[in-house]
Amino acid sequence: MTAEEVARRLEAELTIGTIELAETIPQRVTPGIHTAVVLNVRVVEYKQYKRCGLKYQFRLAEIGQDNGVILPGYVNLGSLGGDGRSRRFKPSAGSKLARWWRVIADHTGGHRKRVMLSEFQNFLFEVVVINVATDSRQRDIPEAARGQAVSEIASIVQRLGEPSPLPKGYPRFIDGFGPLRADGTDRCEHCQELTPFSYGGRRLCLTHAHQQSGGER
């Protein structure tokens, strides 16, 4: 085969119309506070690193284009046993798992030593979403390859199945501010009207909440 024929063949191979990926490229969301539910929690073993952990699967549950986006969250449990198998882990009270469980225990008055993993699926949480910039060995990940994960469970919005404590008239989420929270009465930062609601710590009455969300009343 001549060089010209090789060049024509390569050109033909490189002019495919479309290539289908093995899986959908994950949708990126704005890093920061979001509301989400836990779909499941499972134990995972990272035998190459001789460690074991929990992998949470979160689904964002909020008004807007980010609703339904699924993100992982990871909790380290510790080193594997000498035989490479999981051992009985007892994370400390200062561990990430303890921090996440404390959010539930403080809310429900539940057990403060035993973590019931299934209980995480019973709540709508406020969570913190981050961009993952380094891999497990702290090496930089190229910008286009960076994923996202839930780094913290910050608070509980409500138990699933319970009536929402939030009013129907207020926007559930304001871009750049965050989700609606009922957190004690104080004065609107614009007009000094008393209101029990805020967005990301910004106190807003009903009128100014709608103005900030782009829908004036």
Q: In oligomeric terms, what are we looking at?
A: single chain
From the spread of the alpha carbons, the general shape counts as: flat
Strand content: 35-45%
Query: How large is the radius of gyration?
Result: 23 Å
Q: Strand order within the widest sheet?
A: 3-2-1-4-5
Note the gap between the termini.
74 Å
Sheet with most strands? 5 strands, antiparallel
Task: Name the poorly predicted regions.
Answer: none
Average pLDDT level? 84
Helix-strand makeup class: alpha+beta
Number of strands: 9
Number of helices: 3
Helix share, percent:
10-25%
Concise structural overview:
Helix content is 14%, strand content 35%. It has 217 residues and is of the alpha+beta class.
Question: Could you characterize the architecture of this molecule?
Answer:
- The protein is built from 3 helices and 9 strands; from the N terminus they run αβββαββββββα.
- The strands form 2 sheets. It has a 5-stranded antiparallel β-sheet. A 4-stranded antiparallel β-sheet has the order 6-7-8-9, covered by helices on one side.
- The model has no long low-confidence stretch (mean pLDDT 84).
- It has helices at residues 3-13, 96-108, 206-212; strands spanning 32-46, 51-60, 70-79, 123-131, 148-159, 173-174, 178-187, 194-199, 202-203.
- The protein starts with a helix and ends in a 5-residue tail after the last helix.
- It is an alpha+beta fold.
- The protein is flat and about 85 Å long.
